[in-house]
Write a sequence for this structure.
């Protein structure tokens, strides 16, 4: 197969359909071509092909709902419908969707089923995984157009993070802790945007207290995490309080973008000069050089294509103290 002909066909395709991001498209095709010549193992090519197909389907599905905030909900597949945690998850999902969020579950039984069951009509997704046991889509999502299935866990986990704005964990097993520790790691290292991470269980259940005791004794006290990392999550026994916490997280803070040496925090409201001064007094140390400044998007051509009406905070964040960045976001939200 002639590579030059392939490139020429791609150029014609981009022109015909007025495709954007053509550079990324060429890079992707080049990577695939190189892989086909460098690695003759057919199993590798099957993995690549299946991964791309899964991601394409998921991206197409979620793109239609890109302007609606979403909550990824996790918990045990083995929780029965008469369990108080099942009812709590069902009620939480109803409250979340009534608040305007959509809910993403793993589409299976237990807490996942409760999440899909409790959601308002047309307000939940199922991100299923093909397993030889335990996992088939529950009755509340299996015939929904917002169900997508994966062969590979890594694709599924990517979608859970990429397409959600908050993570809520109910009691569960290895999978629940895997998802929880992954999102905490990604926030801690700046590989995903700051978000609310909520741990919730029934009043009288010490499940998350025991978990936190391990985090405190074995991780923080032995120096494996910092004290600020304990602020990356919040425990609740009450759905209303948990939902209020999630809503408040996005009251003044909207989103963040990193561009070269700059960190750009988009705001839902403009800060007063006194409020900006208070931010610098409390968190100016997060800027490696200069101060935390407030600018309108029209003065930031590198970040004015999305949410052009919103003001921004811009500063040279050291990209180390993400636990302290979360604390700054909570401080910003006191100005609501």
């Amino acid at each position: 197969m002639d590579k030059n002909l392939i490139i020429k066909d791609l150029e014609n395709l981009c022109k015909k359909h007025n495709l954007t991001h053509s550079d990324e498209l060429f890079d992707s095709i080049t990577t695939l071509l190189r892989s086909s010549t460098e690695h003759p193992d057919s199993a590798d090519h099957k993995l690549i092909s299946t991964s791309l197909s899964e991601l394409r389907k998921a991206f197409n599905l979620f793109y239609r709902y890109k302007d609606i905030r979403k909550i990824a909900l996790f918990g045990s597949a083995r929780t029965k419908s008469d369990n108080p945690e099942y009812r709590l998850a069902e009620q939480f999902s109803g409250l979340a969707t009534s608040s305007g969020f959509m809910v993403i579950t793993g589409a299976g039984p237990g807490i996942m089923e409760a999440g899909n069951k409790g959601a308002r009509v047309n307000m939940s997704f199922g991100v299923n995984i093909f397993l030889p046991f335990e996992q088939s889509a529950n009755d509340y999502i299996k015939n929904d157009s917002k169900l997508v299935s994966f062969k590979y866990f890594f694709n599924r986990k990517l979608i859970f993070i990429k397409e959600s704005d908050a993570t809520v964990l109910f009691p569960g097993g290895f999978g629940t802790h895997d998802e929880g520790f992954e999102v905490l790691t990604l926030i801690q290292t700046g590989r995903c945007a700051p978000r609310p991470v909520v741990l919730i269980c029934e009043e009288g259940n010490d499940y998350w207290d025991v978990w936190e005791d391990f985090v405190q004794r074995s991780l923080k006290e032995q120096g494996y995490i910092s004290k600020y990392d304990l602020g990356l999550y919040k425990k609740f026994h009450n759905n209303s309080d948990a939902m209020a916490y999630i809503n408040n997280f996005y009251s003044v803070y909207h989103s963040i973008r990193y561009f070269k040496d700059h960190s750009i925090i988009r705001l839902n409201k403009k800060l007063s000069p006194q409020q900006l001064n208070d931010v610098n007094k409390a968190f100016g140390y997060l800027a490696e050089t200069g101060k935390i400044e407030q600018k309108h998007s029209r003065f930031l051509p590198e970040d004015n294509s999305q949410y052009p009406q919103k003001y921004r905070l811009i500063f040279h964040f050291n990209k180390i103290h993400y636990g302290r960045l979360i604390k700054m976001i909570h401080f910003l939200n006191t100005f609501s």
Summary: The CA atoms of residues 104 and 125 lie 5 Å apart. The radius of gyration is 22 Å.
